[in-house]
């Protein structure tokens, strides 16, 4: 059962002289007035009565009062809570008239409902942890956060290595005119010898052409001079004519190869090989950089998968307020971090979380409600009524938006009882 405050009476607590009030069951009960009139003292008195001695103000008794503090609170579950007398001892009466204590109150009183500023002062992560604790996924989400942080650390290190490797690869020289493999001097020499041998054979054939040409000329002269020997020499001449034609045909397509490039390569073999090795080093460095970059992308995807898993976990949880979530370990509402929420949104979020911390506690004490404008306060009150929540709040104003006005420790317009009168002495003649 959700427990609320049906009524309370407070006397001589801090600035309060005497106040009696029945707050509205659902929605806002606003205690208005100027500063220093006793508004916050009312909340402190209720917190002390219900929250235990740890909520007791350092100077609980009203200054100048000869009568000790007195607090009387009636709750919706029938319990009556009192603090009175010299030591302000706690007394809790249940509906059957039996007495109870603070342990009974703790079953349905949420401490943060009595001390909203304590929750409001938490940092973003502590607020988020409070929310995760009440919806039961804190440990699981913490594990996902650890795994995401581990992946982020790995990615950061891989990113540094990838950037370093890429920079090193870009600084290495590369020679477009160098071959892919290093050159062997012995191979070049063998190629040179083969070309020289081929060129020698070509020269021999040229010499042979020249020799046959000279012989042909000699024989032609002899034929001219020795006509009479023409018959016996004619066959030889024909054969030589054929040989000459064959030799000319063979020698016509011959081409001598230039060994200058090979000779230059032989002389520059060390320089060429330096370029080749430099190119190989660059290709290897570029390949390593690309592999590291691919590893970085894989880690980035793994991180995104973890974040998606966290979002799915939160989406499946029962949150106390629509649009309430946790992102990167911080509490958010409508995608806004705590410090980006309006003051009214902060109060609404805090109230919803506190209510879910202990669903049996149906009320929240709220100080300094003046941070809400009138329209926002009305919206907040309507939301409280819709949720079945009771909020007793203070507001530095004396306007119509307040349920009551507190002035000099009393409710303005309410009959003011005498709270400081000492008991009158009862004297009878002859008796002392």
TrEMBL record:
SUPFAM superfamilies in the cross-refs: P-loop containing nucleoside triphosphate hydrolases
UniProt GO MF annotations: ATP hydrolysis activity
Alphabetized UniProt keyword annotations: Coiled coil
Domain named Rad50/SbcC-type AAA: residues: 9-304
Pfam families: AAA_23
Keyword Coiled coil: yes
GO biological process, one term: double-strand break repair
Gene3D superfamilies hit by this protein: P-loop containing nucleotide triphosphate hydrolases
Entry keyword Phosphoprotein: no
Coiled-coil intervals, chain numbering: 216-243, 275-309
Source organism, top-level taxon: Bacteria
Protein name: Chromosome segregation protein SMC
Lineage: Bacteria, Bacillati, Bacillota, Negativicutes, Veillonellales
């Amino acid at each position: 059962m959700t427990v609320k405050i049906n009524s309370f009476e407070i006397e001589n607590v801090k600035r309060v002289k005497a106040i009696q009030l029945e707050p509205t069951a659902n929605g806002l009960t606003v205690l208005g007035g100027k500063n220093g009139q006793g508004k916050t003292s009312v909340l402190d008195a209720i917190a002390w009565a219900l929250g235990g001695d740890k909520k007791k103000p350092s100077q609980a008794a009203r200054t100048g009062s000869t009568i000790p503090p007195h607090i009387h609170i009636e709750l919706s579950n029938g319990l009556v809570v009192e603090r009175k007398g010299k030591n302000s001892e706690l007394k809790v009466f249940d509906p059957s008239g039996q007495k109870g204590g603070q342990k009974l109150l703790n079953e349905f009183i949420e401490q943060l409902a009595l001390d909203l500023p304590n929750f409001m002062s938490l940092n973003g992560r502590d607020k988020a942890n409070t929310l995760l604790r009440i919806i039961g996924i804190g440990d699981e989400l913490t594990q996902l956060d650890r795994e995401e942080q581990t992946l982020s650390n790995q990615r950061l290190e891989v990113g540094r290595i990838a950037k370093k490797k890429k920079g090193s690869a870009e600084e290495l020289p590369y020679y477009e005119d160098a071959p892919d493999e290093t050159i062997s001097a012995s191979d070049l020499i063998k190629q040179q010898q083969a070309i020289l041998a081929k060129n020698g054979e070509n020269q021999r054939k040229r010499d042979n052409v020249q020799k046959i040409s000279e012989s042909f000329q000699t024989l032609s002269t002899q034929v001219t001079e020795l006509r009479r020997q023409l018959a016996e020499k004619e066959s030889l001449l024909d054969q030589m004519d054929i040989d000459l034609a064959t030799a000319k045909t063979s020698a016509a397509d011959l081409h001598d190869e230039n060994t200058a490039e090979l000779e230059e390569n032989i002389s520059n073999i060390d320089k060429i090989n330096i370029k080749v090795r430099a190119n190989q080093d660059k290709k290897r460095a570029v390949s390593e950089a690309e592999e590291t970059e691919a590893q970085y992308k894989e880690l980035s995807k793994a991180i995104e998968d973890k974040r998606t898993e966290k979002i799915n976990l939160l989406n499946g949880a029962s949150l106390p307020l629509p649009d309430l979530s946790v992102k990167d370990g911080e509490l958010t509402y409508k995608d806004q971090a705590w410090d980006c929420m309006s003051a009214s949104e902060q109060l609404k979020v805090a109230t919803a979380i506190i209510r879910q911390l202990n669903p049996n506690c149906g009320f929240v004490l709220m100080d300094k409600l003046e941070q809400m404008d009138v329209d926002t306060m009305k919206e907040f009150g309507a939301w409280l009524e819709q949720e079945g929540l009771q909020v007793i709040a203070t507001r530095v104003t004396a306007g119509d938006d307040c349920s009551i006005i507190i002035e000099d420790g009393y409710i303005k317009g309410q009959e003011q009882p005498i709270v400081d009168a000492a008991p009158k002495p009862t004297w009878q003649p002859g008796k002392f």
